[in-house]
Amino acid sequence: MSTGFELQFETRAALGTSGNRRLRREGRVPAIVYGAGRDPRPISLDQNSLFRHMERQAFFTSIITLSEGQNSQPVIVKHVHFHPVKRQILHMDFQRILEDEKITLDVPIRFIGEAAAKGVKLQGGEIAHLLTEIEVSCLPKDLPEFIELDVTELELNQLLHLSSIKPPEGVEFVALSHGQDPAVIAINPPRREEEEQVAEALVPEVPTEAAGEAAPAEPTED
User: Fold this and answer.
1) Mean pLDDT per 10-residue segment, the chain (222 residues)
2) Is residue 222 in some structural domain?
3) N-term to C-term CA, the chain
4) Do 94 and 109 share a domain, yes or no?
5) DSSP classification of residue 116
6) How far apart are CA 118 and CA 110, in angstroms?
7) Given CA atoms 181, 130, 54, 93 in this order, what sign does their dihedral have?
8) Is residue 219 one of the residues assigned to a domain?
9) CA spacing 20 to 30 A to 13: which of 98, 189, 190, 214?
10) Which domain holds residue 145?
């Protein structure tokens, strides 16, 4: 479990679109905290502080402490809604956590040995990331910051599925528990080689008549 992030929040009294717009103009982010059998609580946070924390990828897979005065509670980030154009956070969702209650979260995959992979270094292939995150289920104490996957032995035209990754102690991959086993990474032939193969397949066959002597002209009537 990764820890070390703490955010100061304020209880949000003004709700609705107009209240949220006012908060954003003041440099604050409207948010909601829910879960742990308690009522949802609307809060707001300082946007600049959030952006500083978000520079570290671990922020999204860590237990975060939300504090207001002397009161604090552990949470995880469940959703961040960014403005489509501006550098602005429009809204955030946090989930309260309990020590003895499992949580689900998307955890990034850290790929190891890509440049040294057999299919790349010896066979000239190209890496294709089919998944970059894995949804995990675990107790808060077992939450990993990332999942490591060593691809050094992966060869050309091979791929690895989720079932080939050993989860950390106490961690379950949600997809596998639902009977799914998605592909995670593959090594494909170089794109140039694929394009040449496609181009060759698209070249039409030359008719026999055009390749040899010209066909005799149809007789014309006088």
Assistant:
1) 80 87 95 95 96 94 93 95 95 96 96 96 96 97 95 96 96 97 96 60 57 47 46
2) no
3) 96
4) no
5) T
6) 18
7) negative
8) no
9) 98
10) 104-201
